[in-house]
Amino acid sequence: MIFLSHNSKDKRIVEPIAIKLREIFGQEYVFYDSWSIQPGEGIIDRMNEGLANCTIFYFFVSNNSLSSYMVKLEWQNAVMKASNGKAKLIPVRIDNCLIPPILSQSLYIDLYTNGFDVALRQIVDIATGSNTYRPQFTSVSNLEARTTINIGREIDVEVSANYYMEPIPHFLFVTPNAKREISFECKGCSMYTSSFNEGVIAIDNGRVHENAIFLAPPNLITPGFPFIAHFKALTENDIRISSVWHEVTKNSWKPIPFLIKR
């Protein structure tokens, strides 16, 4: 039995969760007062029955529920039952209230911070015995390119490593400009490798191809030691850097985050 302990003022949030649990487990296995207590039935008796039979107790913690004497009796009863290993008590925080100290020792579901959909998935996962973990970081973006402008007469693009040394410092700076319109250099580098490559970057599902300026600084890129690519217009036309790509393996290129911070 799943018991949903809440204050009636919070039904707008709690009821969609109750309905979802009913769809999965059946109404008879979810104690939700709106359908578990019918007219003519004793409220206290039905509450006692639900608390006695529950194995999972969701306490929807809010300023409303914390000020309710009836809800207080429910969750304190659940604390005793959980301490004896007879039920699992899971607080679900639904507003900016403070979790009672006696409950703060347990990891709680934070609907208020993480949103309804995330909290609902966690509630269902716990009830079905699934692990609530969902990956947030599936890849590492170590490299990052920054500029103050990406269209103009002169453009500096700083490429930096956020976390660790980058062993292949090979970069493509994508531009729609022709070779005669733009000059390029590794700023402050004594020696570096560079070239202008026409039409090598496909965009717009391959319908458009842009040029790419290859720059390879002489030193490895490490956190705190970026390199700066400098571009300058050679004609009356403004120049533009539209994206920055990194060679991750031989002849395999991927774009890196390109941030314009004015």
Report a brief summary of the structure.
With 262 residues, the chain is an alpha/beta fold. It has 7 helices and 17 strands.
Overall description:
- Helix content is 25%, strand content 34%.
- It is an alpha/beta fold and 262 residues long.
- The strands form four sheets. Strands 2-1-3-4-5 form a five-stranded parallel beta sheet. Strands 10-13-8-6-17 form a five-stranded mixed beta sheet, with no helix packed on it.
- Strand 15 and strand 16 (252-255) form a beta hairpin.
- Helix 1 (11-25) packs parallel to helix 7.
- It is elongated, with a radius of gyration of 30 Å.
- The chain starts with a strand and ends with a strand.
- The mean pLDDT is 89.
Write the layout of secondary structure elements.
Elements: E1 2-5, H1 11-25, E2 30-31, H2 33-36, H3 43-53, E3 56-61, H4 63-66, H5 69-83, E4 88-93, E5 109-110, H6 111-114, H7 116-128, E6 143-147, E7 151-152, E8 154-161, E9 171-175, E10 182-187, E11 193-203, E12 208-216, E13 227-233, E14 239-240, E15 243-249, E16 252-255, E17 258-260
Parallel strand pairs: 1-2, 1-3, 3-4, 4-5, 6-17
Antiparallel strand pairs: 6-8, 7-14, 8-13, 9-12, 9-15, 10-13, 11-12, 15-16
Helix pairs in contact: 1-7
